[in-house]
TrEMBL record:
Residues 407-643, 1057-1295 form the ABC transporter domain. This is ABC-type xenobiotic transporter. Residues 696-709 have a biased composition (Basic residues). Signal peptide: none annotated. PROSITE patterns: ABC_TM1F, ABC_TRANSPORTER_1, ABC_TRANSPORTER_2. It comes from Drosophila pseudoobscura pseudoobscura (Fruit fly). Residues 667-682 have a biased composition (Acidic residues). The lineage of its organism: Eukaryota, Metazoa, Ecdysozoa, Arthropoda, Hexapoda. It is an enzyme of class 7 (translocase). SUPFAM superfamilies: ABC transporter transmembrane region, P-loop containing nucleoside triphosphate hydrolases. The gene is Mdr49. Residues 53-371, 734-1021 form the ABC transmembrane type-1 domain.
Length: 1300
């Protein structure tokens, strides 16, 4: 694959492995190719010996197949001799070992009959001994191979996660195509498939061919040469097809991986998708990406079919040639005393070579899975082998005993690797003395947060250096450096575990007392202690269950618990309400007294006490000094403060007199607030076990979960229902079925004519024999054409049907998931990782059982059915006895089905659970790096993988027995059948050629069945997966979504909004009420602001209006109509949402803005630019080299303010009637805020606007301000009225003034 930068420039989805390395990153453009042996690089020396041993054992087992041919050939040959009773009988080797094969010359009828009985017994005993020996050897070999493969996979899983955790942030920025969830499950499963039993099975099948050829040369080299002449053709056909399959398999994997990326992105940002009714758009995008995979799959089917057809045709041509030439040799030797060519030699040579070649053919699906494994291994090992530039787990680098905390940024030039054309810092120099607090201010995107990232060494500067105590950061150990730093970011990430664990993350040795001390310092101890489970409360995926302010304070506690030498605060209080902010601010001021602190802030009130304020503009320092010095300079900073202050001066006069009295009341008020304020609103979502938590709680939870989940685990689902999934492709299936039946019929037909051929040999007239043999040869050629045609149609038709179905199922599954309600995504079982891995593996499993597999099954059944008919026609006694042996063959099927079904479930659940830990860590890689958690995550994952390992071992326990049974049973059946047939011939109850017909027709059939059974596991996996899919398709959103009526049209949704006695609790946490009889009315075209302490239910009001949830009691009415009476899309089409942490997708900027209006196919560029201008982002976008066509990768490299403005443009492009601003400007610096605030003020005009804000200056002009507390409105009025009331609001407002 050509990895040129142009790839990125075309607006298309990046491919897996576009490791575009720029600027000093390792150039990866020459990709290493890995061969099959590389797949075993994680085996120990002992394991390699074991693999070698299992291969040798398999090779020994393969020698028994020619042994059966020899004993069978000798026995049939003697039947001919002893029936003709002229001359001396053929010499034997194998039969003689078991007491048969006596040589007689012109003996009497009685002697010959007795000899036939002896031969029959010898044949029976020989077959029994051979079967048992082969059974034991194969079992041993397969078991060893599977065990070794599992050991390796466990190691690779661990190494792979470690490699991901070692990668630098640059790699994450530039590889948006690497879908971690699907690699963790799909690719590793494919690798496991290809390096276990497949090695042994392929060896066994291949060696059958080799040993067969050797034995044939020994018996009759002339005939062997003629037959072997055909073999290269068989092998060439197989290799060419295998090669094409490999390339196509890799392409198919790539296409599916791209689709999985979209799914992962959509599930992560599901609330945004819902708010903008993007479900249809996402379904289309997902569907488009599946088309190339479908086409590739069909091609793969076609080539496989052609290869199979060529193989069968050559085999039958080869047989025709063999019997024609062989009969000629037999006739020439007929009257000699010491004959070289007897019917035995013909049978041995023909069967040994043909069986060998056929086994080569049967090896092809196994070789195919080895090719797929190699393709999957490419993806994995490429990541494992990539050398990370900044490796957080490496031991290199200095680890000083102590540091003072002097920091110097020296002449720093920097651009982000993912946007190499935009220069962020241009020679910036700043000095920070030990223990100082230095604040960086400046416009959004000027490089403030970049400096924080350089300090953590997420990136290295292009030029210049960052020094700590005079040492370049590059010379220090990365892990050690990060362990010295406490970081609180703008959008803090919490992991899906308990609050206590989240705090302990940054300092694993912390005691409970340390944690509580840090929590008190961060001012969150009180609200945590009030939760029912206190510090053991789960916070949900990404901390979704708690409000922004609570999350922020937990993150601060997490930073403080490690007692850092350097504290980095990137907008640490932007998400807080005034009360919390004031408390946290004082907590931070206390905390920053010891360590050197770097602060990035947009609210100037939070940094007036800093030791130094640095104003950054255009990537360099514009001015620096203390607040007082900069105010005297009257420069850029002073101007910024005045803008902020101007808003307040008017009030200062009104409230001046009150301020003093206020200050005295404050402390009492605050005490009183402490008790009231933080009634926890654990926001939406629900906890999910992360597995970083303590093992004991994990075990407890797991046992609870097991009892909880027992029921839905194994959905009842039958094979017929599975086939019904394939119903729309019935035309392909019908043709495929007919082809399979035809192909199956060719085997008994062949047996029938082969028996006739033996009958002909007993004829004394050479000319008659020659004429008959030519007829039979022609018939064989006909059978060959039939078999070839059958195989090709069968493979192509079934593959096409399977691929089409997979595409449809993936589309349906994706569609069903995105049409669930938000509560579905809150459920711990439906985490992003679990949904992705379900979407990927369940659909491909179903294809595994339908499609080509069904063809093989049907073919086997047809072979057996027709074989039975042939058998009953020629000898019912022998047929009945032979049928007794069939259950033995069929038993192996049943056994296999039983145990695989049971163990597949536990293995799957365990892998899903383990990959959740990993996916969560990789999604939040910056937090993981910042907290230096890599080793901890790896340990947790390793523990869970060991559990997975136990489940997988259970799955393969009997695999060896089952495969061996399938191989050995047919030969045992031959032994029994021919033994009894021989006795019947001796009693003259039947002609000897008829016993050959019966045995060939039936046993060949059962042998084919055994081959089909090699595929049984897939059917069971598929039935399990299909059951899960069916359950998914059945699950509908519980939210009512009525059709449009005259009273619930779009126009109706534009009017007054009234919350009437609304009561609400989150579905995943019943019993914790969030809103209690809330009443609130919002008049049309007014602006209403909701303020109040963190966790009082403000965001919940918005979620109810957007109908993410519906009220438990009461109703939300629009123009008098309850929101639940509106169709969801109608309701949402008039709502424009701008939230606190906007989710942007991996699309171009233009597409992200156009996402706001998903009700039209094309949003014109003019409208997009219009919206961008209104939200004041147009100039920035135009300045980017690719303008509106710039792709936003997975970890978007935009600053918070830039993201926020794109989100505002997205909301405006749909021209909403109701604008919902959930903390829309909290992430902005003052300059951007001023501009965005203007944009929002403009946007509000003529619209109803519901705004949630912690910065009260932004809502001063609202028509109505409501103060919420504990889910009810406690004060409401305009700014002036509430200030006059002089209660909660006035209190909050005064806390937020900038210090003069």
């Amino acid at each position: 694959m050509d990895l040129k930068t142009t790839k990125k420039e075309e607006s298309q989805l990046p491919q897996v492995g576009d490791f575009l390395a720029q600027d000093g990153a390792v150039q990866q453009n020459t990709e290493k190719k890995y061969n099959y042996l590389d797949m075993f690089r994680y085996s120990t020396r002992f394991e390699r010996v074991l693999i070698g041993f299992s291969i040798v054992v398999a090779a020994v087992a393969s020698a028994f197949i020619p042994f059966f041919m020899i004993i069978y050939g000798e026995f049939t040959s003697l039947l001919v001799d002893r029936t003709v009773r002229v001359g001396t009988s053929s010499p034997t080797f194998a039969l003689a070992m078991f007491g048969g094969g006596k040589r007689l010359t012109n003996a009497s009828k009685e002697e010959n009959q007795q000899a036939i009985i002896d031969d029959s017994i010898a044949f029976g005993v020989g077959s029994l001994v051979g079967s048992v020996a082969m059974f034991v050897l194969i079992t041993l070999a397969v078991d060893i191979a599977n065990r070794v493969a599992l050991n390796q996979i466990v190691r690779i899983r661990k190494v792979f996660l470690e490699a991901m955790l070692r990668q630098d942030i640059t790699w994450y920025d530039t590889t948006s195509g690497t879908n971690f969830a699907s690699k963790m499950t799909e690719d590793l499963d494919k690798l496991k498939e290809g390096i276990g039993e497949k090695v042994v099975i392929v060896t066994f099948l291949f060696m059958t061919f080799v040993v067969g050829i050797v034995a044939s040369f020994f018996y009759g080299w002339g005939l062997t040469l003629v037959i072997v002449g055909c073999c290269p053709l068989i092998i060439i056909a197989g290799t060419v097809v295998g090669k094409m399959q490999g390339t196509l398999a890799e392409k198919e994997l790539k296409a599916y991986s791209n689709a999985s990326n979209v799914a992962e992105e959509v599930f992560s940002g599901i609330r945004t998708v819902f708010a903008f009714s993007g479900q249809k758009k996402e379904k289309d995008r997902f569907g488009k990406l599946l088309i190339p995979a479908e086409n590739t799959g069909r091609k793969k089917g076609l080539y496989t079919g052609l290869g199979g057809a060529a193989t069968w045709l050559i085999i039958y041509l080869c047989m025709a040639l063999a019997i024609w030439y062989g009969s000629k040799l037999i006739l020439e030797d007929r009257n000699l005393e010491d004959r070289q060519y007897t019917p035995a030699v013909l049978v041995i040579v023909l069967f040994a070579v043909i069986m060998g070649a056929q086994n080569l053919g049967f090896a092809s699906p196994h070789v195919d899975s080895m090719a797929v494994a190699t393709a999957a291994g490419q993806n994995l090992f490429r990541i494992i082998d990539r050398q990370s530039q900044i490796d957080p787990m490496v031991e290199m680098g200095a680890k000083p005993d102590s540091i003072t905390g002097r920091i110097r940024f020296e002449n720093i030039h920097f651009r982000y690797p993912a946007r190499p054309d935009v220069q962020i810092l241009k020679g910036l120099t700043v000095d920070v003395e030990p223990g100082q607090t230095v604040a960086f201010v400046g416009a959004s995107g000027c490089g403030k947060s970049t400096m924080i990232q350089l300090m953590q060494r997420f990136y290295d500067p292009e030029q210049g250096s960052v020094k700590l105590d005079g040492r370049d950061l590059r010379s220090l150990n990365v892990g050690w450096l990060r362990s010295q730093i406490g970081i609180v970011g703008q959008e803090p990430v919490l992991f899906a575990t308990t609050i206590g664990e989240n705090i302990r993350y940054s300092h694993p040795e912390a005691t409970q007392a340390d944690i509580e001390r840090a929590a008190r310092a961060a001012n969150c101890h009180d609200f945590i202690s009030k939760l029912p489970k206190g510090y053991d409360t789960h916070v949900g995926e990404k901390g979704a269950q708690i409000s922004g302010g609570q999350k922020q304070r937990i993150a601060i506690a997490r930073a403080l618990v490690r007692k850092p030498q350097i504290l980095l605060l990137d907008e640490a209080t932007s998400a807080l309400d005034p009360t919390s902010e004031k408390r946290v601010q004082s907590a931070l001021e206390l905390a920053s007294q010891g360590p050197t602190t770097l602060v990035v802030a947009h609210r100037l009130s939070t940094i007036t006490n800093a030791d130094k304020i640095v104003f950054v503009k255009n990537g360099v320092v514009a001015e620096q000094g203390t607040h007082e010095e900069l105010m005297q300079q009257r420069g850029l900073y002073c101007e910024l403060v005045n803008i902020t202050r101007r808003k307040e001066t008017t009030e200062e006069e009104e409230t001046g007199d009150r301020a003093l009295q206020k200050a005295q009341n404050l402390s009492e008020e605050e005490e009183d607030d402490e008790t009231d304020d933080d009634e926890p609103e654990l926001e939406a979502g629900t906890s999910r076990e992360s597995g970083f938590s303590r093992a004991s709680t994990r075990r407890k939870r797991r046992s609870q979960r097991r009892s909880k989940k027992q029921k839905p685990e194994a959905p009842k689902f039958s094979f017929t229902q599975l086939m019904r999934l394939n119903a729309p492709e019935w035309r392909f299936i019908v043709v495929g079925c007919i082809a399979s039946v035809l192909h199956g019929a060719t085997f008994p037909l062949w047996g029938l004519f082969f028996g006739d051929f033996f009958g002909v040999l007993a004829n004394g007239d050479d000319d008659v024999v020659r004429a008959e043999v030519i007829n039979i040869s022609c018939i064989f050629i006909g059978i060959g054409v039939l078999a070839g045609l059958g195989t090709m149609l069968q493979t192509y038709m079934f593959t096409t049907a399977g691929v089409k179905m997979t595409t449809r199922l993936r589309n349906m599954a994706f569609g069903t998931i995105v049409s669930q309600d938000i509560a579905y995504f809150d459920d711990e079982r439906n985490s992003v990782g679990a949904l992705c891995s379900r979407l990927a593996s369940d659909c491909s499993n179903v294809q595994g059982a339908t499609g080509a597999r069904v063809g093989v099954m049907l073919q086997a059944v047809s072979t057996l059915g027709i074989g039975m008919v042939v058998g009953f026609v020629f000898s019912w006694q022998q047929t009945l006895l032979t049928l007794v042996t069939l259950p033995l063959v069929c038993l192996s099927v049943y056994l296999e089905g039983r145990f695989i079904m049971k163990s597949a479930q536990s293995a799957k659940a365990a892998v899903e659970e383990a990959s959740q830990v990993a996916v969560e860590a990789i999604t939040n890689i910056r937090t993981v790096n910042g907290l230096n958690l890599e080793r901890r995550i790896l340990e947790t994952y390793v523990q869970q993988i060991d559990n997975v390992d136990v489940a997988c071992r259970r799955k393969v326990r009997f695999r060896g027995v089952v495969f061996a049974l399938g191989q050995a049973a047919p030969f045992l059946a031959y032994g029994i059948s021919m033994y009894y047939g021989g006795l019947l011939v001796a009693d003259e109850a039947i002609n000897y050629e008829d016993i050959i017909k019966v045995a060939e027709a039936l046993i060949f059939g059962s042998w084919m069945l055994g081959q089909a059974l090699a595929y049984a596991p897939n059917v069971n996996d598929a039935i399990l997966s299909a059951g899960r899919l069916m359950e998914l398709f059945k699950s509908n959103s519980t939210q009512p979504n009525p059709p449009e009526n005259p009273y619930n049209t779009v126009e109706k949704s534009e009017g007054d909004i009234v919350y009437e006695n609304v009561g609400f609790e989150y579905p995943t946490r019943k019993g914790t009420p969030i809103l209690q009889n809330l009443n609130l009315s919002i008049k049309k075209s007014t602006t209403v602001a909701l303020v109040g302490p963190s966790g009082s239910g403000k965001s919940t009001c918005v979620q109810l209006l957007l109908r993410y949830y519906d009220p438990v009691s009461g109703s939300v009415n629009l123009s008098g109509v309850p929101s639940t009476d509106f169709p969801l899309d109608t309701l949402r089409s008039k709502l424009g949402l701008v939230s606190q942490e906007p989710v942007l997708f991996d699309r171009t900027i233009a597409e992200n803005i156009a996402y706001g209006n998903n009700f039209r196919d094309e949003v014109s560029m003019q409208e997009i630019i219009e919206a961008a201008k209104k939200s004041n982002i147009h100039n920035f976008v135009s300045s980017l080299p690719q303008g509106y066509e710039t792709r936003l990768g997975k970890s978007s490299q935009l600053s918070g303010g830039q993201k926020q403005r794109i989100a505002i443009a997205r909301a405006l492009v749909r021209n909403p009637k109701i604008l919902i601003l959930d903390e829309a400007t909290s992430a902005l610096d003052l300059e951007s805020e001023k501009v965005v605030q203007q944009a929002l003020d403009e946007a509000r005009s003529g619209r109803t606007c519901l705004t949630i804000a912690h910065r009260l200056t932004t809502v001063r002009n609202a028509d109505l301000i409501c103060v919420l507390k504990r889910g009810v409105v406690v004060e409401h009025g305009t700014h002036e009225e509430l200030m006059a009331l002089n209660r909660i609001y006035a209190n909050l407002y005064l806390m937020q003034q900038v210090a003069g």
